[in-house]
Amino acid sequence: MTTAKVVPTPEERTYTESDLVPILETLFSWRDGDFRRRVPHAPPGILSEVRLLLNEVADRREHLANELVRVRKEVVKEGRFSERLTPGPGVGAWAEGVESVNVLIDALVSPVSGAADVIDAVAKGDLSRRIDLDRSARGEVRRLGKAINGMVDQLALFNSEVTRVAREAGTEGRLGGSANLRGMSGSWRDLTEAVNTMSSRVAAQVRDIAVVTTAVAKGDLSRKVTVDAVGEMFELKNTVNTMVDQLSGFAEEVTRVAREVGTEGQLGGQAQVTGVSGVWKDLTDSVNFMANNLTSQVRSIATVATAVAQGNLSKKITVDAQGEILQLKDTLNTMVDQLSSFADEVTRVAREVGTEGKLGGRAEVKGVSGVWKDLTDNVNSMANNLTYQVRNIAQVTTAVANGDLTRKIDVDAQGEILELKSTMNTMVEQLSSFASEVTRVAREVGTEGQLGGQAQVRGVSGVWKDLTDNVNSMANNLTSQVRQIAAVSSAVAQGNLSKKITVDAQGEILQLKDTLNTMVDQLSSFADEVTRVAREVGTQGQLGGQARVKGVSGVWKDLTDNVNSMANNLTYQVRNIAEVTTAVANGDLTRKIDVDAQGEILALKTTINRMVDQLSSFASEVTRVAREVGSEGQLGGQARVEGVEGTWKRLTESVNELAGNLTTQVRAIATVTSAVARGDLTRSIAVEAQGELAELKDNVNLMVANLRETTQANQEQDWLKSNLARISRLMQGHRDLLEVAKLTMSELTPLVSARYGAFYGIEPGGDHELILIGGYGVRPDRGPRQRFAIGEGIVGQAAAEGRHIILDDVPPKFITIDSGLSQSTPAQIVVLPILFESRVLGVLELASFTPFGEVHLDFLTQLVETIGVTMNTIIANSRTEDLLTESQRLTRELQERSDELQRQQEELRRSNAELEDKAALLAKQNRAIEIQNFQIEQARRTLEERAEQLAVSSRYKSEFLANMSHELRTPLNSLLVLAKLLTENAEGNLTSQQVEFAKTIHSAGSSLLQLINDMLDLSKVEAGRMDIHPIQVSLPKMVDLLEAAFAPLAQDKGLSFSADVEADVPHELRADEQRLQQVLRNLISNAVKFTPRGEVKLRVSTAPAGIEYDDDTLHNATDLLAFQVIDTGIGIAPDKRDVIFEAFRQADGTTSRKYGGTGLGLAICRDIARLLGGEIHVDSELGKGSTFTLYLPASYTGPLAATDGGVARRQLMSPPAEESTAAVPEPPLPLDLPMPELVETPVETPAQWQGDDPLNGAKILIVDDDIRNVFALTSVLERHGSTVVYAENGREGIEQLERNEDVALVLMDIMMPEMDGWATTSAIRRMPQFADLPIIALTAKVMRGDREKSIASGASDYVPKPVDVDRLLERLRGWLSRGRGSASDSSVEGS
What we know:
Layout (H helix, E strand, L loop, with lengths): L16 H15 L14 H32 L15 H31 L15 H33 L14 H32 L13 H33 L15 H31 L13 H33 L15 H31 L13 H16 L4 H13 L14 H32 L13 H33 L15 H31 L13 H33 L14 H32 L13 H41 L5 H15 L4 E7 L6 E8 L10 E3 L3 H9 L3 E4 L8 E2 L4 E2 L3 E9 L2 E10 L5 H131 L7 H32 L7 E4 H18 L3 E6 L6 E4 L1 H17 L5 E8 L9 H4 L4 E8 L33 H11 L3 E7 L3 E9 L65 E5 L3 H13 L3 E5 L2 H10 L5 E5 L7 H9 L9 E5 L6 H8 L3 E4 L4 H16 L11
Helix pairs in contact: 3-4, 4-5, 5-6, 5-15, 6-7, 6-14, 7-8, 7-13, 8-9, 8-12, 8-14, 8-15, 9-10, 9-11, 12-13, 13-14, 14-15, 15-16, 16-17, 17-20, 20-21, 20-26, 21-25, 22-23, 23-25, 27-28
């Protein structure tokens, strides 16, 4: 071994290299950056001092490194720029290094903080803030400041320019404006150019639309809006173009009808203009009405004329008419009357002469002329001649008939009448023997008018016979001629002009025959021409036609001329009306109807001309108002159209109302926006509006309200932060708690508008009492209490709970605040605990005449944290001083004891010799003990390794169960929710079989969920992590719930179910209601399951005496209750009774078993019964039934120690076999193992929501990375009228909230990538606008502590997956209603 050589002196020591090796190794570690290494030991002397010095250097270096790591963590990870390095014990370069680092941090943080303030102001819309660049700013810091200031300048310039363009376009109506691009570049220039592009496009679009609407107003329907447009401008473009198309279609249809009626003569046409409304529809209806009237009038005239031409004089023109049409109607009706009178008279004379034999009659036809008068005179002349001749013949024949054959016929006659006269005279001369016959025939023909008669003279011959034959022949000829003339005359009278006289005739009869045939030809020609003209005008609509009847004269010629004159007048009038209406339909309002007209046609002419004037006036006024409002931006204009009424008046009033409403609305919006621009946020738009203007009004009002709330919130935050900083500065440097309390009360109480206050601090030397150390407004005689125990009164309760308490509606005389003139009761009291790291240091109580505002409460909540830090510092400093004093005292005592020890050491040296001998003996013994200790240590390490392996295995098992639960519950959630929706069949589109399929899916999923819960419960019990929460349980209510739940199930299976509670059973017991119901539900469910027929009973009674319990503590219990579940089922074999309580075991575990299940239920019930402090006994007989009895104390005293859970081994039919081998105790699981919580599925269906459903219209955010759950929950919520937005992780959820600040509630999944639900909830709660937003945590990883962790992170509620739809909806409605309603008043307690 090499040694270090030094000059030996009495004071020097020699050290070996081995003594220097620890120092060298430590230096190597320091060189490699590990300053945790220390020089472990060194020999006495200078080397020991070197070791101490090196270790002290390492301490200081490690302190500096730790401080650097701490500050880096605070600044980089936590973002706390106020953190600095704490100076260590060193001075000189050590202190300078710390100071340099702090100065460096200050230099870096200061510009960043300034930049953050400016950027924050920019984000809030304040462009007046800048970074102050003093002369000390250099390099990158100055460049950063200039860059940010330049950015703000660009933003301000951009804002001013865009505001100016918006004001010019939106308020002043000056289109085409553009923002100035000077000084802009990059994105700002692009953005400004985009605004200019938008402005120019809007200007081009509006101007193009204005050009088209102006053209339409001027009647030019050929123009269309052709400018490119999108969005609402595109819709406006399409609307205007559609309007033009409709107007053009209207004009075309009206022109077509006018052409058909006025030019082509096609009556009955109608204008078909689809898609029009308003005045254009009214105008279309008016044109169609005019065409209908004209059609009905002309057709009625044509019908009557046709009837006259056909000889039917019974028809008249009855259609309503005016003007020339009325004159034509009267003329035709007069003609029909005259023709009818003529026909009546001729028929009368013919009847009297030819049928009745009344001679001398005359046709009297008044008011006729022309042909009709001549025809009447001829008829009368024929009747006179026939009368004279027949009367003379009658006289002769009368004389002959009277036997006087001397008389002769002397009347002038011609033709056959003359021959008749001669024959008659000859006959008179010769007649004697056949006088009677001739007399008879003469009487029949001449007197009675009976043609066709024959003389029958018997026994005559010769001349008389010939004469008789001649007389008979004459009678025959006359009969045939007169009868045919009568037949043709009757046909003409009946309107039949197709018949003519065809009988042979001569003389006057021949002339009469020709005259009648000529009259029939003329009447037929006249009828054909009138019919043709009537058909062309009335049916074919061919105006301008003329009737041409050749060879007529007199009345027939006048009648033909009248028909032609009527056709000409109607043609000119209708054509002129058609031209004007066509011009109006084409938008030309300069044309007027100038044709002469009378009557209704004149009224129609006047009406159309007035319509044109009104249309022209209306178009000019509407065009003027549209130009002033739409192009020139001059609001308030009104259209003034004088003399209009009806539709045009209403349309004018509508236009004026539109302009007035638009003026009022735009001016109201401009007034409010101008007020906002001036900083006046008190104004709002109150004018009534609809449609998009209503949306604009609501948006502007919402913007003003948001700006007002944001401004108020910023002012409150500024007040809060400034006062926090001020009071914190005031408390710095104080070392006395009383001074701090006095300062706090004097500064704080008036600051938050309080009028009374008390400051309580924790009693020194104890943590159980609070004493009064300060006050404000305290009365000497009736001051506050001087002392409170923790948990006593409101002050003690606030300290015990560690949260603030607010008392509202303070009763009179509860506490009074006095002044020199009055004594009053406060309106509200707030009590706040002062905490430091969850340790209570004091309590602050304040009272005020008015309720504390939210900002005051936030201020007090944050201030008590600062007060806690200050109080803790003062207490720590006080304790440090006490410890320093005590340390000095102990140093003196140690010095005295050191002197005493030196004296004792001398005595010990003498005894060392004796001890050395004993030490040798002890060394041997110690060797043996060391060997034993080594063996024990080896065994201990082996056990520790085994225990660690078990802990790791248990942790892996717990993690596996948690992950398995999460992975199973996640798909189960969407499966159960969607199956529930399908079973409801809200839309009614599923068959009953499909609904049953959905119910089967939901039932199977619920069974799988129960299996998962059973496995988690079993794991809990095995790990010893199942907690019991005893409460007071109403026994009758619980039994009723069980009966309501299982009675329908038993009834469906054909079983009877009853639940009885004996009279001596107490009404309440203290137990964990959830776990007790779980055990009873499992036992009853098994009884129903394994009972094919019979009944199932639940009986609750006091436990009888003499029961053999497995746990001795139950033998001494006096309040045991017996819950018996009795069935008449299949029973349990004796050798299976100890098996059914084992996990995963059943009485029948074969593959062919009849009853399903996992075999976990009774095992869990056994363990829960033990945790509840009771046991389960079973008594069963195979084939007859079973009785399971839960023995439970009426008041929970704690779990039993029995490891078998209370299996009634003593009641088994056969004694248990002894174990052949000793049971190896299983090592217990670690107590901190997290296990899943039990999730109970509620049996009761929530009641139907009464009143307005809070879900209807509510916006709900779903944050979940599983799209299946999002789809399922969205389907449920949308059925109830909710609007759903979703995000796939926490970061997107926060972004969605910032974009949708009207979200009413958040459903938050816990396990998500990037940012889990807890971190997301905490981040949301740090956002002031979402501090009170209801957040419901949803997770399939239902582990122990998850609920508490969710609530601690800021969640409002916790719902495990898979969710029960009805229960979830009930929770959502409750939170939404709570958010809309006011908070309930807190009860007042005494302090």
